[in-house]
Design a protein that fits this description.
Length: 139
Amino acid sequence: MSDPYELRVGVPSVEVFRRLRTDAGLSDKAPEAVALALPHTWHGVVLHHEEHPIGMGRIIGDGGTAFQIVDVCVHPAHQGRGLGMRIMGALTDELDLRAPATAYVSLIADGPARFLYEKFGFADTATHNSIGMYRVINA
């Protein structure tokens, strides 16, 4: 039996990006902001099921010293099948291949996603004399 899922390198369209985020329970982003952001992706993957995009993940950063994994999501109808692992595996493999050894890679783990990220070597920063912080720009 063939695998109905295909992971492709790239980024989705603005519309698909927004749909994937909201379908997975992540916050929506303004289309203008998404259109600015997607071309600056250092590496991205889109997961397809029978030619329909159902998941994604991106790496952003400066290409040398700092990277952040963002927008990792899988449509709820396809969760629980190891697809988040496939997305994270593809992203971390690319970092291992192309990012300098001294690069810092960060991400924000929402809820139980922390358990997925821990499998790829990510640790809670609050235990290492630093703490993850964020600021949202309000319109």
